[in-house]
Amino acid sequence: MYCLQWLLPVLLIPKPLNPALWFSHSVFMGFYLLSFLLERKPCTICALVFLAALVLICYSCWGNCFLYHCTGSQLPESAHDPSIVGT
Q: Which of 11, 39, 50, 83 could form an S-S bond across to 7 if both were Cys, CB 3.0 to 4.6 Å?
C-alpha cells in the first residue's frame, strides 16, 4: 500500500474555478497518472483501490472529478465572483 501515498493526493487536488482551465487541468492530471503508472508500476491492489475511488468520485458527481464536469452539478458560489474568475 506504499504506492497509494502518491496516488490518493491526486483525488484531493481541486478543479480550477475558471471553466476555461478545466480541459488543461484534465489533460495534466491524465498525463500525470499515465506517467506515474508507467514509471512506478504500482501494485495491482493499489491500482484497483485508486480506480475504485476515482470511479466513485466521478459517478457521485460531487464536482471534484477531474475527468469531466457533471452537467447537473452547480459551480460553487465563489465561481460567480468576477474578482476570482474574471470576465
A: 50
